Amino acid sequence: MTSPLLTRAGAVAAEPPDADVAAHYGEPAQEGRALEDAAGWIDRGNRGVVRVTGPDRLSWLHSLTSQFLDGIAPGTATEALVMETKGHIRFHLSVVEDGTAVWAHTEPGAAADLAQFLDSMRFMLRVEVEDLSDSRRVLTLAGPEREKALEAVADRLDDVPLRRAEDETDLFLPADALAPVAEALTAAGARPVGMWAYEARRIAEHRPRLGRDTDHRSIPHEMNWVGRAVHLEKGCYPGQETVARVHNLGRPPRRLVLLHLDGTAERLPEQGASIELGGRAVGAVGSSARHHELGPIALGLVKRNVPVDAEFVVDGIAAGQEVIVPPDTGANAQIGLRRRPA
């Protein structure tokens, strides 16, 4: 559903998968600076929203996802993955427990499939799963002054779950409250920020996005999700064997890199374009954006054995790499060799 905030002066619609929200509000560079120096709100109302209620919700989700959720305190914000048995990633969830329910937002268009999968795994447990994508909208507040702006609109947020992550706060707003709360935040000093600036910030922070930076073969160690979205001190969930094997033995097939693109190019590489080294394809590019300080950047997946100092050509554009996932990630097992007596 197209966001009502696209009617704001200067708003320009983003491209899929974010076509229902704004790419920018007329000044993308200044919007990016607001996220770094002050506060900005980002319309992410196209995100899918799922709510899980019932007394068994935390232990049940603990058994289905990569994150340690059993017994977490109200207000705890985290990330989680739902994986196939071989460790390939199906869903990425941004999660908060509010004391009565678990709220999660996921990629645009993915909530119905996520809710259907979860509902199929209920069995006799006391849980209820709802896809609230039609009635709730995600508004994200980011920047060092975000709490000040949030306090100014506290009277509008009585029944609104808040997901306070390390560097941003997600508001799960009723759909009819999206525009009024956004306007109130603007009046409180928070700047409207589009997806161009938000995505540039995400890329610069080495945070991959499911479907943009992943493919059907992606596993958590490749994507820098171990620690952030995968808890290593739990087991017995789909995909756990792959996570444990790579953690102990290493050797994930690919690794995530930040690409610093030649700023003289007038375009950004297409998603899926080849990353080439010496005329040979060694990976593929995912998200790309123009950062207000770093210039054009992108995330890419390259083969594990590609040298960490290699320079690439991406869709005809020269690119240097910044290592995100080291080639030797994992390999934490301490294995000793026993020798036969002489």
TrEMBL record:
> Keyword set for this entry?
Transit peptide
**Any one Gene Ontology biological process term?**
iron-sulfur cluster assembly
Q: Which Gene3D superfamilies would you find in this protein's record?
A: Probable tRNA modification gtpase trme, domain 1
Keyword Cell membrane assigned:
no
State the superkingdom: Bacteria
Q: Which intervals hold domain GCVT N-terminal?
A: 28-157
Keyword Nucleotidyltransferase listed? The answer is no
Q: Tell me the InterPro entries matching this sequence.
A: GcvT/YgfZ_C (IPR029043), GCVT_N (IPR006222), TrmE/GcvT-like (IPR027266), YgfZ/GCV_T_CS (IPR017703), YgfZ/GcvT (IPR045179)
PANTHER family in UniProt: TRANSFERASE CAF17, MITOCHONDRIAL-RELATED (PTHR22602)
Q: What is this protein called?
A: Folate-binding protein
Q: Which organism is it from?
A: Nocardiopsis gilva YIM 90087
